[in-house]
Write a structure and sequence with these properties.
With 138 residues, the protein is of the alpha+beta class. The protein has helices spanning 2-8, 17-32, and strands at 39-45, 48-54, 63-68, 71-76, 96-101, 106-114, 117-124. Strands 1-2-7-6 form a four-stranded antiparallel β-sheet, with no helix packed on it. It has a three-stranded antiparallel β-sheet with strand order 3-4-5.
Amino acid sequence: MVSTMLDLFKDPFFIGVDREINRLMNVQGVAAKQSYPPYDIIELEEESYLIKMAVAGFDHDDLDITVDNKTLIVSGEKTEADEAHYLHKGIGTRKFTRTFALGEYMEVVSASLGMGVLHVTLKREIPEEKKPKQITIK
């Protein structure tokens, strides 16, 4: 089914769309291999979303959030050495990277960390010049 849909975009009518399709396929290929940390995506309202990511054991300085080429990249790496002698270590603090493909005009509105959960709020912010406008007939 996916192959059939991709074949549709090989039509000469879709000029330049192949780059966007390739970008989405690349991000999806990388994201499919990432399994840590777990996350939820919640639709807050139309065109507004919240990503909740379980990052227990990580602090503000251990996390990095970047948007590059319409891709949201959340990564984490512990910066301080933990010298404690654990009898059991169940809270994972291994280095990670999570990627999410962002749609057109999607912007990161805010990010916060509390109680071991990273909250990243996204919203589609359409520029005024791209919004539909009414043309007056004279």
